[in-house]
Amino acid sequence: MNLLLLSNSTQYGQGYLAHALDAVTGFLPAKARLAFVPYALADHDAYTAKVRGALEGAGIEVRGVHEGGDPLAQLASADAVFIGGGNSFRLLSALYRTGLRDALIKAVGDGLPYMGASAGTNMAAPTLRTTNDMPIVQPPSFETLGLVPFQINPHYLDPDPSSTHKGETREERLTEFLEENDVPVLGLREGSWLRVEGERATVLGERAARLFRRGAAPQELPTGSDVSQLLRGEPRFDA
């Protein structure tokens, strides 16, 4: 696997992908034909144009998989694929509907570089169960791509001790997940990402990540942390 999994695509006060542009351009092949999957948002053309504008200066040719009427052909002709953020349920539903889910699993398994941001990063996990999104549509299944054998929670937010809000914190929600499932969850704070190269996985970016495991206290993972052991685990759901 060759993966770049961003927590977010837009950092406060910066343009689209600007905070991670060096990582993105270093990850993508030179002069790559990048297949962009825009299905997490409703306006596919505008979303593709935003990605194209962010990457054209680096010599990356961006093609929306919806352009030309054959998403599978667009994927097959690409040097890399990028799945952008938005609503994870809408995105996954579209991946099933278009046949891209199975095609992506095979292509990435065969070595196609995969980049995700937010909802696109959720797709790399085994299931959708740790997304922050509202289920605005119902996909055929919660099963995503399973490119890594653990869950990821993009946009991870730390509890705010001064808040008067009485709803669950992100930490409480992930603890509830672990009460029912024995699967590590990597919380990626905004500005951070996970790089997977074969059997090696590394937390990178501006901020530390937070790892949740059943029966253990959450663990802080500073940027640069090697988390390759997570790639060797076996998830147990409904356990």
From TrEMBL:
Function as written in the Swiss-Prot or TrEMBL entry: Hydrolyzes dipeptides containing N-terminal aspartate residues. May play a role in allowing the cell to use peptide aspartate to spare carbon otherwise required for the synthesis of the aspartate family of amino acids.
UniProt main location, coarse: cytoplasm
Family from the record: Belongs to the peptidase S51 family.
EC number: 3.4.13.21
Species, as recorded: Streptomyces tabacisoli
Protein name: Peptidase E
Example GO BP: proteolysis
Subcellular compartments: Cytoplasm
